[in-house]
Design brief:
This protein is an all-alpha fold. It has a single domain (2-91), classed as Tetratricopeptide repeat domain (Serine Threonine Protein Phosphatase 5, Tetratricopeptide repeat), CATH 1.25.40. Helix content is 76%, strand content 0%. The protein has six helices and no strands. The protein has helices spanning 2-10, 15-28, 32-45, 50-62, 66-78, 84-91. The chain is globular, with a radius of gyration of 13 Å. The N and C termini lie far apart (36 Å). TPR repeats lie at residues 16-49. Keywords: TPR repeat.
């Protein structure tokens, strides 16, 4: 985790990648609230990143926040994420 923090603190030409990788690591550690903050950082750098919206939606789902999950998944679908439609069918109906 400290490697991600170091890259983020020093700056990078690809901040969205650094934020996404940290979010994924936090998600794997079941630190879902923190992961969502880093997915939000990805989105603030690149609001067309369908994968960040998808992963954010799936993380909200892990927290039992269905409405928030569905909002993020629908944005991911609109941006072309290939897995979003299936998850919307499962989680949002």
């Amino acid at each position: 985790m400290s490697d991600f923090n170091s890259v983020i603190e020093k700056g990078t030409d690809y901040p969205a990648v650094a934020y996404f990788n940290k979010a994924e690591s936090l998600r794997e550690l079941n630190r879902f609230e923190e992961a969502i903050k880093y997915y939000d950082n990805v989105i603030s750098v690149d609001n067309k990143d369908s994968r960040a919206y998808f992963k954010k939606g799936m993380t909200f789902s892990k927290l039992g926040k269905k409405d928030s999950a569905c909002i993020s998944l629908k944005i991911a679908k609109d941006l072309g994420d290939p897995e979003a439609e299936k998850e919307i069918g499962t989680l949002c109906n």
